[in-house]
Write a structure and sequence with these properties.
Chain A is of the alpha+beta class and about 150 residues long. Chain A has seven helices and four strands; from the N terminus they run ααααβααβββα. Chain A folds into two domains: about 55 residues; about 80 residues, Glutaredoxin (3-Layer(aba) Sandwich). Chain A is about 40% helix and about 10% strand. In chain A, strands 2-1-3-4 form a four-stranded mixed beta sheet, covered by helices on one side. In chain A, strand 3 and strand 4 form a beta hairpin. Classes of the chains: A alpha+beta (about 150), B alpha/beta (about 625), C alpha+beta (about 260). Chains in contact: A-B, A-C, B-C.
């Protein structure tokens, strides 16, 4: 399957062509496409003169990168310590049940992806769920369904 | 705005302070991540809109400050009227007109928006009188909430860059290092290594290129002080790094920021640009033979990158795998050059030490841990948030005076410090004065300052299982003891949580832990078993209850508990829609029925029931 | 040169030389599954850990991976102290849980007294011990065709995008150096397959035996300045040719002398 990577030259132009830019470039690609299409990975490797195997290793090492398309809405459940002891697991279970997928998966219609984040640093509002960019604090099990309907 | 000599900083400061006199009252809106999540952005808009609509006496857009985090995120959005210090919590957009009319125009206090102390219910008018703030000693957090977070002139107006100017124009690099050594400043990122000694080694290392790196990869779950400082006082971070660079002779700096902190990146980026524009970063700074620039490197979601060698490889665009370091990074660090690496909180203390002197700093805190420490006080405590206290403050003062005790008056059970490398301390250690060494002595550690309070409804086995699970996810997988050892420890503890634990499991875990502690390559592994070992040490009977009696006394481990509806049920039907799994059925005013087969033990019913009609056993 | 003590005996070593190389020179058996002389040490398996101390350390000692520890003067090293043996035993116990079917792992575990793992056996555990010798050798060869992918317990060795690796030349350096013989390849007729990539084998122009892959020959002739034709003759034919040449030279010399 071919993917449109029309924006890639523009992204590559924004950064110096060195290995130091690699993570920043992958981040920009991830942000633009919500994942990293494999063609983009290959082209980035060529543009920076870094072996493809290294680029692949880096893109699979860091959690921020996904090599498969993700949903339009990304539900990020914080499972930091503060969230954990205030019931983040239960919130996660509830979200998984409501969307019919497990954390890390995307709904077949491509609408939702659930991600688990180790800590978003909003511990004082635990438990926290982030719907795309919107933070929801002190989330209750009973409030999950409502939260999922809230679009950005 | 060009700053070419020290005088320029002074002039800018005086000019700005004079211009601010036009506004007798200022509105400080907290715009940290927490308050923004609670709608602080809309509050700022509401104030600006109100000004668009009509002229307000003694008030202008310039008097609205979008400040950094106060640390009292749970009560957000926070609005403070200065100079009176009137403190409003949970402000809504509809309150804005009222605030303008009453508090700005008429200097009155709006009773309904004041914070009420949870214990006494007493309404507190002024910011500094709230228990949460009263007991704090804010140095690293000095500017948070006091100035517009991303404004260089506001930073200068509160004395910013004064210390840097002093260092560059009146001190020799060695004098700066002497001062930092004398202050006793220890690294706030975890280990507590003396910062001055590190700087000295780097200064003495022979190399053409040296680096100053700021570790902003605050990975410990449950800690967010570095995020708040980077967001709310980015210039203080830069100033600390600039002083360090001048002292060790570095011309390039990097700030490694966690991927999860986009606002911190934005504010730091703006701060760097403003410094470049004004000449505080770049070539021949303040007319001296000193050039320095700073780049931001964004993390990409890997806890292990908080480890120094992994962080440096990640900056270089490589995999964040730690390297065995029998040669320290201060000698051979980033790109194999001498590198000073300190964390955010360490750097922001530096300008204060240079400005006020090492003996002033040494006078705060304890003998071997001088200064203050920021903690993120979270978990089952009434007042959660970011706090800063002198080293040596007891856990009890932090949890009960500042934190106002445990939610719902439940009994205190443990406090977890030091994140995944730390441990859980029971009530017997509540009077422990907190500093780097005391925490290590009792089997925990300072770490970056996460302090997670736990009550009797927190299961310590579950907590240990949580940390091990976290570390298994975050282990880079390079060395066997960490990759396979933590994996097996997690397997063992998971079995215990599921009621499949066997006699001898604890001993097996303790034995395996020793190898993981001794033989792992980096700090992630060599401290990874700490949460497990400290909970076994202090809460062994809780483990035994799981293993022998197949019971979770705290009612947390799902496989070992059961929810039941008792006869206190009034048939209010509140729990029926709360259950996401249709496990509860019933009619109005009749005792409801819980289908055990459908019950996932999510606890939603328990949370909504107002009549204590749901038992957990 | 500096003097150090290993297991009670004095040994000489170059300052800065890695401890493991001194230990191996003395023929002391210290296991090291991720070590390969051709590449930089990694310090991943931790089996080569030894206990070190110095007289002035007042009885304090520490554990270091000898493959990465540069020799210092007056070091006192124990390669088989009780604690070191215990670390190795536990590590082999962990390896055995993950790779229960690997003969090499079973043998080494047995040497340290582990016949059955104490931990949960990973039933589907393969024989790749993630030592990274293959990827480091591939890098050293200049191909960078494969790498360690992912992280943590789920890490694997794989070609980019898990597809046939474009930079692989079928040189077999990875497979032949794998300590657990995990990397599969097949040589059939004039075809070689490795990492799901098929290579054409060059045939010897003299005897028809296969030599090396066309890609590898092209790489070597380009980068090592060896004529491509050199690889169109197999090693034994090269030797035959050499002996013929040598014989002729001998005959000429004899002829010239008489």
């Amino acid at each position: 399957m071919k993917h449109d990577i029309g924006k890639l030259p523009e992204i590559l132009d924004r950064h110096p062509k060195s290995q130091e830019s690699l993570i920043a470039i992958l981040q920009d690609i991830q942000k633009e496409y919500n994942y990293i299409p494999c063609e983009a990975l290959t082209e980035t490797a060529t543009a920076l003169s870094i072996p493809l195997s290294k680029v692949f290793a880096i893109s699979t090492f860091y959690n921020a990168f996904s090599l498969t398309p993700r949903g339009e809405t990304i539900i990020r459940v914080c499972t930091g310590t503060a969230c954990h002891i205030r019931g983040a697991e239960l919130i996660k279970d509830q979200i998984e049940t409501a969307l019919g997928i497990k954390a890390g998966e995307t709904t077949p219609d491509g609408k939702f992806t659930i991600e688990v984040v180790a800590c978003v640093g909003a511990c004082a509002m635990a438990p926290v769920v982030i719907n795309n960019e919107k933070y929801h604090g002190s989330v209750k099990v009973s409030g999950v369904k409502k939260l999922l309907k809230v679009k950005k | 705005m060009q700053i070419k000599e020290v005088e320029h900083i002074k002039k800018l400061r005086n000019k700005y302070l004079a211009s601010q006199k036009k506004f007798p009252r200022k509105v400080m809106v907290c715009c940290g991540t927490g308050c923004l999540a609670n709608g602080a952005g809309k509050i700022v808009d509401a104030f600006t809109d109100a000004l668009d609509k009509r002229e307000i006496k003694h008030f202008a857009v310039e008097a609205i400050k979008e400040t950094g985090c106060h640390g009292f995120c749970e009560q957000g959005p926070l609005v403070i009227i200065e100079p009176s210090g009137t403190f409003y919590t949970k402000v809504k957009t509809k309150d804005v007109d009222k605030i303008i009319e009453q508090s700005i125009e008429r200097n009155e206090v709006i009773e309904s928006l004041l914070f009420a102390e949870p214990k006494s219910g007493e309404k507190i008018e002024k910011y500094g009188d709230v228990d949460f703030f009263k007991h704090q000693h804010r140095l690293a957090l000095r500017n948070l909430g006091k100035i517009s977070a991303d404004s260089i002139i506001e930073y200068i107006s509160v004395g910013g860059y004064k210390a840097f100017a002093k260092a560059v124009t009146t001190m020799k690099p060695d004098e700066i290092i002497d001062e930092i050594v004398a202050s006793g400043l220890r690294g706030r990122g975890g280990g507590g290594f003396p910062a001055g000694r590190k700087w000295r080694t780097c200064r003495e290392a022979a190399a053409d290129t040296k680096y100053v790196v700021c570790n902003g990869d605050e990975g410990d779950p449950g800690a967010f002080m570095d995020r708040s400082i980077m967001e709310g006082d980015p210039h203080a971070v830069l100033e600390g790094m600039m002083i360090a660079a001048f002292a060790v002779g570095a011309d390039q700096g990097y700030i490694y920021v966690r991927d999860e902190y986009p606002l911190a990146t934005t504010h730091l980026q703006k701060a760097i640009e403003d410094c470049q524009e004004s000449g505080l970063l770049g070539e021949n700074i303040l007319g001296k033979d000193f050039s320095f620039s700073i780049k931001i490197a964004r993390g990409a979601g890997a806890f292990v990158c908080g480890e120094s060698s992994a962080l440096m490889r990640s900056i270089a665009g490589e995999i964040g795998e730690p390297r065995a370091k029998y040669v320290r990074s201060v000698i051979k660090g980033l790109y194999d050059q001498p590198t000073v690496l300190n964390n955010v909180e360490t750097y922001v203390n530096v300008p204060l030490i240079i400005d006020k002197g090492s003996s002033w700093f040494k006078g705060i805190g304890t003998e071997k841990s001088s200064g203050t420490k920021v903690f993120s006080l979270v978990g089952k405590v009434r007042n959660t948030g970011l706090i800063e206290v002198g080293m040596g403050t007891t856990l009890r003062e932090i949890i009960f005076d500042i934190g106002d005790g445990i939610i719902d008056n439940r009994p205190f059970k443990a406090v977890q410090t030091g994140g995944p490398s730390g441990g859980c301390l029971p009530a017997e250690h509540l009077d422990l004065p907190v500093d780097f060494d005391t925490l290590t002595e009792v089997g925990s550690m300072m770490g970056s300052g996460g302090m997670i309070v736990m009550d009797d409804k927190t299961c310590m086995v579950d907590v240990a299982q949580y940390f091990l699970g976290f570390l298994v996810e975050e282990s880079c997988g390079k060395c066997v003891p960490c990759r396979e050892g933590l994996f097996q420890l997690h397997k063992l503890i998971t079995r215990i949580c599921e009621g499949k634990g066997e006699e001898g499991d604890l001993e097996k875990m303790e034995h395996l832990s020793q190898t993981v502690l001794t033989a792992s390559l980096c700090g992630l592994g060599t401290s990874g078993p700490n949460p497990l070992l400290s909970t076994i040490k202090y809460f062994r009977e809780e483990y035994e209850a799981h293993i022998r009696d197949k019971k979770c006394p705290a009612g947390v481990c799902k496989s070992l508990i059961k929810y039941e509806i008792n006869d206190k049920c009034t048939g209010c039907m509140a729990c029926i829609p709360a259950c996401g799994y249709d496990a509860i059925t019933g009619e109005k005013k009749k005792i409801h029925i819980l289908d055990q087969d459908k019950c996932t033990k999510c606890g939603a019913c328990y949370a909504v029931c107002k009549f204590e009609a749901i038992d957990v056993s | 040169m500096v003097n150090i003590t290993i297991n009670g005996k004095t040994a000489q070593a170059k300052e800065g030389e890695m401890l493991l190389s001194v230990i191996r020179r003395l023929k002391i058996d210290v296991p090291a599954l991720c070590h390969h002389e051709a590449v930089e040490p990694l310090g991943a398996c931790r089996l080569c850990m030894v206990e070190i101390t110095k007289t002035e350390w007042d009885g304090w000692s520490k554990f270091v991976t000898s493959c990465l520890y540069p020799v210092e003067p007056d070091l006192i090293v124990s390669t088989h102290s009780d604690q070191v043996n215990e670390i190795r035993r536990t590590i082999m116990d962990l390896y055995l849980a993950r790779h229960p079917n690997s003969p090499e792992i079973r043998k080494l575990a047995e040497e340290y007294g582990v016949l059955k793992t104490s931990y949960e056996v990973q039933v589907d555990g393969d024989n790749c011990i993630l030592c990274g010798i293959c990827t480091r050798i591939c890098d050293a060869m200049g191909f960078h065709a494969i790498s360690l992918v992912g992280r943590g317990h789920g890490k694997t060795v794989a070609p980019p995008l898990n597809e046939a690796p474009p930079d692989c030349t079928g040189c077999l350096s990875c497979a032949l150096n794998c300590p657990t013989n995990f990397i599969e390849f097949s040589d059939q007729d004039d075809k070689r397959t490795i990492w799901n990539k098929e290579f054409e084998m060059l045939a010897c122009v003299k005897c028809g035996a296969t030599t090396i892959t066309r890609e590898f020959a092209e790489h070597l002739s380009k980068n090592r300045d060896i004529p491509f034709e050199y690889f169109e003759t197999c090693d034994s034919c090269h030797r035959k040719e050499t002996s013929l040449t040598m014989g002729r030279i001998a005959a000429w010399t004899k002829e010239a002398q008489s």
